[in-house]
């Protein structure tokens, strides 16, 4: 069983930066593909980024490419999302997620992941 806990959310002005962290428990963390999703207010949850088990391969939602960077440190059982040049449209609850179904594949839909964190709020003011 993997438990995921996000941290690092908060309020930031447009153009600012935040780094989200996702701490995972469980010895099999390093074998899972992982990702970040977000749910803007009043909207459906959407994919943001994914990373394979090794951290060598990543995939991003088009609107965050060049601004967000997903990474992981398997020795620390932690995944990160560095968010730069934040925009008001990035305002959402951000969720960390892990998939025991995939290792090298980069899942992009919610039903491909089977472990979820509780979420952390990111608010970007204009």
Describe the structure in brief.
With 126 residues, the chain is mostly beta strands. The chain is built from no helices and 11 strands. Strands 2, 4, 5, 6, 9, 10 and 11 form a 7-stranded mixed β-sheet that branches.
State the secondary-structure class.
mainly beta
Please outline the major beta sheet.
7 strands, mixed
Q: Average pLDDT value?
A: 95
Global Rg: 13 Å
Individual helix count: 0
Quantity of strands, as a count = 11
Overall 3D geometry?
A: globular
General description of the model:
It is built from no helices and eleven strands. By secondary structure, it is an all-beta fold. Strands 2, 4, 5, 6, 9, 10 and 11 form a seven-stranded mixed sheet that branches. The protein is globular. The N and C termini lie far apart (40 Å). The mean pLDDT is 95.
